[in-house]
Amino acid sequence: MKVLVTGGLGFIGSHTVVQLAKRGHKVVIVDNLSNSREDVLTRIEEITGIKSKLFIEDATDEASMRRIFEASSFDGVIHFAGLKAVGESIKKPIEYYYNNLVSTMVLSKLCIEFGVEKFVFSSSATVYGNQPSPLSEIMDLKERTNPYGETKAISERILTDAAKVNLGFSVCLLRYFNPIGAHESGLLGEDPRGIPNNLMPFITRVANRDIEKLTIFGDDYDTEDGTCVRDYIHVVDIAEGHIAAIENMGKGVSVYNLGTGKGTSVLELIETFKKVNGVDVPFVIGERRPGDIAVCYADPSKAYKELGWKANKSLEDMVRDAWRFEVNNNQ
Ligand code: UD1
Question: Between the N and C ends of the chain, which has fewer C-beta atoms within 10 Å?
Answer without folding.
Answer: C
